[in-house]
């Protein structure tokens, strides 16, 4: 890399015009050619430039051997045609990020209060005042109140803006890393090289294949069934077939959806079609902010990738160019042809479960802030009114005074008191607590291999109730190995063992066909490299399934490299590439003996159905009938699948050179095959996955596996992972059966009522398409049968997983196997593709939620005590016992430090032992409300005791104002000090919010917490002893300090008493999320109608469940007995039992509405309680 850049720098003296003269075609001509495209472009290419060969001559390149790769040649090309990179959009300035942070409603309210308070502090009306002698001393510091609020707001804004700036810088750093890591295959000096995408130059020959995001504009020079999705640039949702002679133009930023081939690069960087669109976006990309599924990012979370709506559709970043097209929206149209808006109301529908305005936590916080605001406003207005009315009655009615301007100062002071009460009521430390908690979690999650792209996904994951996970690579290691093979009429097992592999006896001609079929009929980018250091196994590069097969070629003593050398890709006659529809791939080659042979491999059931002959033990071709097919399925394929193996059938067909078929007629071509072998490929379950899934189950999270594998393979893996167990009756469905159950008509829309009968019991969805995954995710999100609503997380790695990742509440993309589109559609990237990392994300998400709840419990206790103390003091004593500046010390400075202390708690495994909160559970639970009210009552009682009885009990002067003149005193200083110390010790209590007895547990695992606690305590001592002027304090004696400390420590003891109080349903709860009516058919009569007066106690419900479970188990046992009578033991699979025993009548899937008589041996996975069971249990 460095060697190439030096000459590049030296050649910069060569102007683009001079460099352009070196070639027979100019940059402008190439741009015009790419813009023309279509039939006119083909005509111009052939007539003006002499076709592909003529264009290659003008660009001084070779269509087969590629460029020479010499530094001088590359430098000239860079000067003439530009570098393959698009300058990234400049980041937001720190000032802009601060302006974004200031959009927070709470901060706006605080600023308004501060401005009013600040202005009033300097308002001194003319004439006499009531505080002529004493008040000026305190008046000098009245401005501190407004200034303190402003300082607090500035702190919040700076922290938020700095966090966003840091996050943007991290993402740009990640982008730079991606640019260096992402490479593309080019042909230089007749050899394939992997180079960084930005080093691609005009004239390069690039190898392109399925799943690639094209890094530059160019023309096809060789293609194998090449189809491209150009929807992100052209809006055309259909796949476009590309061929050298018909529509050869390829555009940067588009996706190769099928096939493979080679491309001659014609335009790079800013001169490509994507680059031109970037130029057009220019001024508008700053203003048009995309509305992603997490629009709250535009306020708090600045995501560099979510810029402009046009950019979102056209040029999603993620390729090493810095920006390339994302076909996610188009894929959704093309692959998921569903009218989502009709079915779920669309994203704008208020009934739609998905919160499009804000995340779950933000919705609850917003609602809570509004509720607190109303309460604070009410008490503030009441305080001002009580003070005004009492003063007016005393002055104008009892004393008969006339109005004088001197009364203005008193009215202004009362208004300041009211504003102070309002300011204290608003939890201004909350935005900082949320920001710190999220930022801390994101930073720590990176160490757990979770790269968080959207901050709010962090806390949303803590609420997750369902995870729809891929199998390959996430639950399994994604290292494929052939462990069983059926070849030459014999089934060989444990062939991964070299000693066992030597025992395989296969005729030489069969071996030759196997080697050729696997080596040629695989992507040439799939290969085995020497093992890395400290490893024994070869490194698998490319498609892991193909790598497993290639490894088996080596086990049998073959060399796939030699075969590939004999059959280069450009000599292929035709290629049918693998896709999710055909589930097989075929490659047609011309052998040296002139025979045209088509090699096919794919899903065993599909390929085997196309076979009419098979190779026997001698290597001869013998007929293969339907009876033979059934026998192989039952004796070979199903046992392999039940062992958790992916079964691949390898077959071939020969054509005579003089009778070649029409290769476009795929149905007739890929037929009449000869079966060579059936391979059983194992992808071992990750060692840590079963424990991780067990943790999810304990945490109340349902894990569902969505895979394209055979149903038996999927079930076996699910059993090994612990997603299902042998004795449960959860559903394991194939995609076709799943779609049949959720639709009232075969090709109709998804019926949510039918869907709601399937998904609660569904655990494994096999042979599924990306559309099935999308439908599953959307349906679970839209379902209302669970009162708290489901919060769904999804994993995905493929281009077609984009819609499901986008639709989910939290989308996890695979960092290793994931495509660019999947990463763009995701919220969190799993750096190690490991399911265990998802469990860690759940822990951190719940920790964020709990951290904010801890801070809320602390903050609201402070607020309730301070507000009511001010209100009672104003009403009875005519003066708040706490001065405005003292309140702000407690409410702003202490709370800011407390937010830092409580928001940095480290998560523990205990977080995974409770159920998720869900969408609708209130942020402040009844337990928290009990703690808040319990401590507020105690602290208020102590403060009022000191206020009224303190002078007598503690032998001090009464500090209550005389003739409305306030003087700092020991009395009021002690009230302030006791309040602060009780708050400090309550901060320790707030570390636990679920009623735990030991509040000190784990306190020393968080040095930030105890460090801040000690610092705050020391600062309080300094303020009381030495802050007489600014904080209206008088130094206290040692005895008074001991009393203050005693009242502070008793808060810890009071917490134990509060914990003993049972939580009742009469206690209020605040900050609930969206409220929905639960549609769950909890108690149904015989006709599915809700019965009156059918309220069951917990004991009755448990009894019902026990009886139901017992009867279900009895039915399962009876079903197994019946099936064993009918079939040999080895064929009595659960799928067969279901097929035998489930009645094939349409109404079976509507059994909530009609009672269908079922025989005694029926196993039904979603059958409700029958009328008989309900009647029996009622007795």
UniProtKB/TrEMBL annotation:
<dbReference type="InterPro" id="IPR059000">
    <property type="entry name" value="ATPase_P-type_domA"/>
</dbReference>
<dbReference type="GO" id="GO:0005516">
    <property type="term" value="F:calmodulin binding"/>
</dbReference>
<dbReference type="GO" id="GO:0005388">
    <property type="term" value="F:P-type calcium transporter activity"/>
</dbReference>
<feature type="transmembrane region" description="Helical">
    <location>
        <begin position="971"/>
        <end position="988"/>
    </location>
</feature>
<dbReference type="InterPro" id="IPR022141">
    <property type="entry name" value="ATP_Ca_trans_C"/>
</dbReference>
<dbReference type="GO" id="GO:0005886">
    <property type="term" value="C:plasma membrane"/>
</dbReference>
<feature type="transmembrane region" description="Helical">
    <location>
        <begin position="411"/>
        <end position="442"/>
    </location>
</feature>
<keyword id="KW-1278">Translocase</keyword>
<dbReference type="InterPro" id="IPR044492">
    <property type="entry name" value="P_typ_ATPase_HD_dom"/>
</dbReference>
<feature type="compositionally biased region" description="Basic and acidic residues">
    <location>
        <begin position="339"/>
        <end position="352"/>
    </location>
</feature>
<dbReference type="GO" id="GO:0006825">
    <property type="term" value="P:copper ion transport"/>
</dbReference>
<feature type="transmembrane region" description="Helical">
    <location>
        <begin position="932"/>
        <end position="951"/>
    </location>
</feature>
<keyword id="KW-0460">Magnesium</keyword>
<dbReference type="InterPro" id="IPR036412">
    <property type="entry name" value="HAD-like_sf"/>
</dbReference>
<dbReference type="InterPro" id="IPR023299">
    <property type="entry name" value="ATPase_P-typ_cyto_dom_N"/>
</dbReference>
<keyword id="KW-0597">Phosphoprotein</keyword>
<dbReference type="Pfam" id="PF00122">
    <property type="entry name" value="E1-E2_ATPase"/>
</dbReference>
<dbReference type="GO" id="GO:0051480">
    <property type="term" value="P:regulation of cytosolic calcium ion concentration"/>
</dbReference>
<keyword id="KW-0106">Calcium</keyword>
<dbReference type="InterPro" id="IPR023298">
    <property type="entry name" value="ATPase_P-typ_TM_dom_sf"/>
</dbReference>
<protein>
    <recommendedName>
        <fullName>Calcium-transporting ATPase</fullName>
        <ecNumber>7.2.2.10</ecNumber>
    </recommendedName>
</protein>
<dbReference type="InterPro" id="IPR001757">
    <property type="entry name" value="P_typ_ATPase"/>
</dbReference>
<keyword id="KW-1003">Cell membrane</keyword>
<comment type="similarity">
    <text>Belongs to the cation transport ATPase (P-type) (TC 3.A.3) family. Type IIB subfamily.</text>
</comment>
<keyword id="KW-1133">Transmembrane helix</keyword>
<comment type="function">
    <text>Catalyzes the hydrolysis of ATP coupled with the transport of calcium.</text>
</comment>
<dbReference type="InterPro" id="IPR006408">
    <property type="entry name" value="P-type_ATPase_IIB"/>
</dbReference>
<feature type="transmembrane region" description="Helical">
    <location>
        <begin position="143"/>
        <end position="162"/>
    </location>
</feature>
<feature type="transmembrane region" description="Helical">
    <location>
        <begin position="105"/>
        <end position="123"/>
    </location>
</feature>
<feature type="region of interest" description="Disordered">
    <location>
        <begin position="288"/>
        <end position="352"/>
    </location>
</feature>
<keyword id="KW-0112">Calmodulin-binding</keyword>
<feature type="compositionally biased region" description="Basic and acidic residues">
    <location>
        <begin position="288"/>
        <end position="297"/>
    </location>
</feature>
<keyword id="KW-0813">Transport</keyword>
<dbReference type="InterPro" id="IPR004014">
    <property type="entry name" value="ATPase_P-typ_cation-transptr_N"/>
</dbReference>
<dbReference type="Pfam" id="PF12424">
    <property type="entry name" value="ATP_Ca_trans_C"/>
</dbReference>
<keyword id="KW-0067">ATP-binding</keyword>
<keyword id="KW-0547">Nucleotide-binding</keyword>
<dbReference type="GO" id="GO:0005524">
    <property type="term" value="F:ATP binding"/>
</dbReference>
<dbReference type="GO" id="GO:0046872">
    <property type="term" value="F:metal ion binding"/>
</dbReference>
<dbReference type="GO" id="GO:0016887">
    <property type="term" value="F:ATP hydrolysis activity"/>
</dbReference>
<feature type="transmembrane region" description="Helical">
    <location>
        <begin position="1008"/>
        <end position="1028"/>
    </location>
</feature>
<keyword id="KW-0472">Membrane</keyword>
């Amino acid at each position: 890399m460095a060697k190439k850049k030096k000459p590049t720098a030296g050649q910069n003296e060569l102007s683009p015009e001079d460099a352009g003269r070196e070639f027979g075609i100019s940059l402008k001509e190439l741009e015009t050619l790419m813009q023309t495209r279509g039939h006119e472009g083909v005509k111009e290419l052939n007539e003006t430039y002499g076709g592909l060969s003529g264009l290659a001559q003008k660009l001084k390149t070779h269509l087969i051997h590629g460029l020479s790769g010499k530094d001088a040649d590359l430098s000239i090309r860079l000067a003439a045609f530009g570098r393959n990179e698009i300058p990234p959009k400049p980041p937001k300035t720190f000032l802009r990020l601060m302006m974004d942070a200031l959009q927070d409603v709470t901060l706006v309210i605080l600023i308004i209060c501060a401005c009013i308070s600040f202005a009033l502090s300097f308002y001194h009306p003319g004439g006499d005042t009531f505080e002529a002698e004493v008040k000026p001393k305190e008046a000098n510091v009245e401005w501190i109140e407004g200034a303190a609020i402003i300082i607090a707001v500035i702190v919040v804004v700076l922290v938020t803006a700095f966090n966003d700036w840091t996050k943007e810088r991290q993402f740009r750093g990640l982008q730079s890393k991606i640019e260096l890591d992402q490479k593309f295959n080019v042909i230089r000096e007749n050899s394939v090289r992997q180079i960084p995408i930005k080093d691609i130059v005009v004239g390069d020959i690039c190898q392109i294949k399925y799943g690639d995001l094209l890094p530059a504009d160019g023309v096809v020079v060789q293609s194998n069934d090449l189809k491209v999705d150009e929807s992100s640039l052209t809006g055309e949702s259909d796949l476009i077939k590309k061929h050298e002679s018909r529509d050869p133009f390829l555009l940067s930023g588009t996706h190769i959806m099928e096939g493979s081939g080679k491309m001659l690069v014609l335009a790079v960087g800013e001169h490509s079609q994507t680059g031109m669109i970037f130029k057009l976006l220019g001024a508008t990309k700053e203003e048009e902010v995309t509305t992603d599924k997490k629009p709250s990012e535009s306020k708090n979370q600045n995501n560099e990738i979510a810029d402009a709506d046009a950019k979102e559709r056209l040029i999603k970043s993620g390729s090493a160019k810095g920006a390339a097209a994302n076909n996610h929206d188009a894929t959704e149209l093309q692959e998921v042809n569903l009218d989502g808006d009709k079915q779920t109301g669309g994203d704008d529908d208020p009934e739609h479960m998905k919160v499009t305005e804000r995340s779950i936590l933000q919705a609850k916080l917003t609602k809570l802030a509004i509720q607190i605001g109303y309460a604070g406003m009410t008490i503030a207005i009441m305080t001002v009114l009580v003070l005004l009315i009492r003063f007016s009655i005393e002055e104008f009615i009892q004393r008969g005074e006339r109005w004088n301007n001197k009364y203005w100062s008193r009215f202004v002071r009362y208004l300041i008191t009211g504003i102070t009460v309002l300011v204290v009521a608003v939890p201004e430390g909350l935005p900082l607590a949320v920001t710190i908690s999220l930022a801390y979690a994101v930073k720590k999650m990176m160490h757990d291999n979770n790269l968080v792209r959207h901050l709010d996904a962090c806390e949303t994951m803590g609420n997750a109730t369902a995870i729809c996970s891929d199998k390959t690579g996430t639950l399994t290691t994604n290292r494929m190995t052939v462990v069983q093979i059926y070849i030459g009429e014999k089934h060989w097992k444990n062939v991964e063992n070299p000693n066992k592999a030597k025992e395989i006896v296969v005729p030489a001609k069969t071996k030759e066909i196997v080697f050729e079929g696997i080596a040629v009929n695989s992507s040439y980018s799939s290969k085995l490299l020497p093992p890395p250091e400290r490893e024994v196994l070869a490194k698998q590069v490319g498609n892991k399934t193909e790598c497993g097969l290639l490894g088996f070629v080596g086990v049998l003593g073959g060399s796939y490299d030699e075969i590939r050398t004999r059959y280069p890709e450009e000599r292929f006659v035709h290629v049918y590439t693998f896709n999710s529809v055909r589930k097989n791939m075929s490659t047609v080659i011309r052998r040296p003996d002139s025979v045209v042979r088509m090699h096919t491999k794919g899903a065993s059931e599909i390929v085997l159905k196309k076979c009419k002959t098979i190779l026997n033990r001698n290597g001869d071709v013998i007929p293969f009938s339907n009876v033979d097919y059934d026998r192989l399925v039952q004796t070979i394929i199903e046992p392999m699948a039940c062992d958790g193996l992916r079964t691949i059938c390898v077959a071939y067909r020969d054509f005579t050179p003089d009778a070649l078929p029409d290769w476009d007629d795929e149905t007739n071509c890929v037929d009449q095959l000869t079966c060579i072998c059936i391979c059983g490929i194992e992808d071992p379950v990750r060692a840590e996955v079963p424990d991780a899934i067990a943790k999810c189950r304990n945490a109340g999270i349902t894990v569902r596996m969505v895979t394209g594998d055979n149903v038996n393979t999927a079930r076996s893996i699910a059993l090994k992972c612990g997603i299902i167990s042998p004795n449960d009756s959860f559903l394991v469905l194939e995609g076709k059966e799943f779609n049949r159950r959720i639709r009232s008509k075969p090709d109709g829309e998804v019926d949510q009522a039918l869907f709601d009968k399937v998904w609660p019991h569904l655990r494994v969805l096999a042979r599924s398409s990306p559309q099935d995954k999308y439908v599953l995710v959307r349906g679970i999100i839209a379902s209302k049968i669970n009162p708290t609503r489901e919060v769904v997380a999804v994993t995905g790695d493929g281009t077609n997983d984009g819609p499901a990742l986008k639709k989910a509440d939290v989308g996890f993309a695979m960092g290793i196997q994931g495509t660019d589109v999947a990463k763009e559609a995701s919220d969190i990237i799993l750096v190690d593709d490991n399911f265990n990392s998802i469990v860690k994300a759940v822990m951190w998400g719940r920790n964020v939620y709990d951290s904010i709840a801890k801070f809320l419990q602390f903050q609201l206790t402070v607020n309730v005590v301070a507000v009511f103390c001010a209100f009672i003091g104003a009403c009875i004593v005519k003066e708040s016992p706490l001065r405005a500046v003292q309140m702000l010390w407690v409410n702003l400075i202490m709370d800011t430090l407390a937010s830092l202390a409580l928001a940095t708690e480290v998560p523990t495994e205990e977080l995974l032992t409770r159920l998720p909160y869900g969408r609708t559970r209130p942020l402040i639970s009844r337990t928290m409300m009990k703690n808040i009210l319990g401590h507020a009552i105690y602290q208020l009682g102590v403060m009022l005791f000191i206020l009224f009885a303190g002078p007598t009990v503690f032998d001090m002067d009464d500090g209550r104002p005389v003739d409305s003149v306030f003087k700092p005193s020991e009395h009021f200083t002690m009230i302030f000090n006791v309040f602060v110390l009780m708050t400090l010790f309550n901060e320790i209590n707030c570390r636990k919010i679920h009623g735990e007895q030991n509040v000190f547990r784990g306190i020393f695992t968080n040095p930030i917490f105890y460090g801040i606690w000690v610092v705050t305590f020391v600062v309080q001592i300094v303020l009381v002893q030495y802050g007489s002027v600014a904080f209206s304090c008088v130094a206290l004696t040692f005895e008074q300090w001991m009393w203050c400390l005693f009242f502070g420590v008793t808060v810890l003891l009071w917490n134990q008493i509060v914990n003993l109080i049972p939580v009742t349903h009469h206690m209020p709860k605040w900050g609930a999320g969206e409220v929905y009516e639960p549609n769950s058919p909890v108690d149904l009569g015989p006709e599915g109608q809700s019965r009156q007066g059918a309220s069951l106690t917990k004991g009755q419900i448990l009894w019902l469940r026990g009886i139901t479970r017992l009867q279900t188990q009895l039915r399962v046992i009876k079903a197994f007995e019946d099936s064993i009578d009918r079939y040999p033991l080895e064929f009595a699979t659960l799928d067969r039992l279901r097929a035998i025993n489930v009645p094939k009548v349409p109404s079976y899937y509507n059994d909530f509405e009609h009672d269908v008589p079922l025989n005694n041996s029926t196993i039904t996975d979603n059958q409700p309680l029958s009328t008989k069971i309900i009647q029996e249990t009622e007795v």
